[in-house]
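Task 17 of the worksheet. Students: predict the tertiary structure of the chain below and write it out as structure tokens. Keep your answer in the requested format; marks are given for formatting as well as content.
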Amino acid sequence: METEPQNNAFNAPKPYACWSCGAHISAEDNYCRKCGKGQGPFVDWYYKHWGLVLLALGCGPFVLYFVWRSPIVSRNAKWVYTAVISLFTWYVVSAFYRFWMLFQTMLGGMPQY
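Model answer:
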């Protein structure tokens, strides 16, 4: 006599946790029922790789908040993003500083009235 397995504490499907709020969600949920955040491929665009690159070009170092909150990006990739964005920010700031010093030098050579 065969019986069908029952869902009990020993063989119940394991609950998943929402990456944002930590609430228990089932495996087939695309969005968290508590906070409404997307799960898996339904994560917002600014947490995906292409969204982070786009934001980095427009927002500079402020995108690091989204990099470290992203559930898609691995921990090693987060460190790479942080290093690249920091170097890019340093380069842009130093270029503006050099331009400002050149501008000040050019104005310093002009007669003042």
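Marker's comment: Strands lie at 16-17, 24-25. The longest helix spans residues 75-108.
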